[in-house]
């Protein structure tokens, strides 16, 4: 997936678990078929999962999760995977890693979740997360999600050029420039998850039950947590917006946080993970359709 991917195998994880957390050494270790951009997952028995960073940019997530998810969990209306133990790098594997509870549930689809109910549930989660006291949280810096979106401008424009005729470059550029023109967030910084893709949500009994993969966690502009309106619940965007609130300018920035990762992901994943590139194209199509309807 990445030029600097660090491969991990079930045997390797089993060895590290046995050496560092021997109380679980008797449990089988099996790879999880689902994967994201920055971790490989391995079941440990039935109730645990090892989260193994695959790239350097994810190297700090284990410690971030262990520090902040226990702080946030009591306030949230759904379950979050606060780590049960941390693992250290060794001579064969370079990153800190974690063992977390394996949370039951499934990625939401039209078959297992009503999009309008999901939009309301997700909106309630976002609203609750943003209301938690963020004064001691880690501030977003650089070009991380939650900082001013203009920091992504050169990367997005390069991606628009690289995407070629896969997108309507003129319309996409116009839409992107409207996002850039929105005023910066003037309120107090809030806690944000930052990556509320369908793959980072779990549903049970057709309701949102857990939010996972907190690698983008931090304190900043709330707009990135509104971006699921175009890639997670596009058919129930209005229900999501009503559940979350916020002003028009925040939603303009949110549209940018949907567009930016989608556009940069199209050329990046086109040959390596085509499904991710296609997801980016669907997000851009949803943004343009939304703008056409205004």
From TrEMBL:
GO molecular function, one term: transferase activity
EC number(s) reported in the record: 2.7.-.-
CDD domains the record matches: APH_ChoK_like_1 (cd05155)
Alphabetical keyword list: Transferase
InterPro entries, A to Z: AGP_Transferase (IPR051678), Aminoglycoside_PTrfase (IPR002575), Kinase-like_dom_sf (IPR011009)
Pfam family, one: APH
Name used for this protein in its record: Aminoglycoside phosphotransferase family protein
